[in-house]
């Protein structure tokens, strides 16, 4: 239970608060199909990622990704750690903590200096907590997570006791394909990416508890993952519902941070801002701690000459510097990176599960991932507006789901089918695992 609550807190950053709130307002009466899509990428994939890492018998993400090719293993793992670490997700935790929890208390004159000071204090707190990774379960799972859940429960309970209104008609983006829109909105949480990282922290916690036998390790990992997944699902559904019912009182707002702030102020007045500030700080700092610890541990393993504590300090400083650029800059810069890495991560999880259950050979991994890399790269270039218009139009015309951002599934399925045929033709040779 403590490990599962730690995992929930590591996954649940402030982005996980603001994205379902915005989804609820936008989806309105199409809330439930949109929420189901969001739960698949925001809850189902992270759970599968944790389980895939346990089932695969891999020694970490790089070991798992190296089953495609050793160079792919290094490049993909470095890119993923930098994305969920100091380049995007870590700075976002500090920026969101300030924007939602503190910005309305700060005078407009000298606001940037206040922001920098608050970010410095935030990353200093995360740095202190991350310097002792062996104490993460005790500090997060047994202390910070219960406080976070209590703060969220107070706000969520109020929306059930005295609802603000009824959901309105869906906004344009959610009218045609609410499920697909919700599915893609789940990308923003970055939790499927983080699952392949946090999964190792779960395995470490299980081993520290004295559980070594593979079947018992898998049961303990599944139990902890299930605790985290259930908590995430309940919170996401409640926050999305909160957003959907807030439209009558608050009107349509341009981001989930404003939705949460408006709901908190509606129910608790000035004390609502305090409650929201506590909730956001706890959500952000627990995620920041886990990301700092995981990133430093990986790069220490990759280059042992780099000291773990020095790496934690370095990543905290880089995250602080990038967070100082502002939340809008971070969110817009992350989009092309996410639409590239997410398909690769999903396919890697599928391949790991297939390997464990069906014994797929190496050629299956290479065909499936090669096709997915091609499609994801084209989509990322299109998202960054670097893809020639003629090529973008051709893909939209001939690849099903391309315009909705789901065209990579066609490429991945074709690559997987070709890989299985190749594997069958070469005698179903099993993969040699270390």
TrEMBL record:
It holds the Pfam family Branch_AA_trans. It is found in: Cell inner membrane; Cell membrane. Signal peptide: none annotated. Its main location: membrane. It comes from the Bacteria. Keywords: Amino-acid transport, Cell membrane, Membrane, Transmembrane, Transmembrane helix, Transport. The keyword Cell membrane applies. GO terms for biological process: isoleucine transport; L-leucine transport. The chain crosses the membrane at residues 34-56, 68-89, 113-131, 143-162, 192-210, 222-248, 268-299, 311-334, 340-360, 367-384, 404-423. It is a multi-pass membrane protein. One of its GO terms (cellular component) is plasma membrane. GO terms for molecular function: L-isoleucine transmembrane transporter activity; L-leucine transmembrane transporter activity; L-valine transmembrane transporter activity. Component of the transport system for branched-chain amino acids. Belongs to the branched chain amino acid transporter family. This is Branched-chain amino acid transport system carrier protein. It comes from Vandammella animalimorsus. The lineage of its organism: Bacteria, Pseudomonadati, Pseudomonadota, Betaproteobacteria, Burkholderiales. The gene is brnQ.
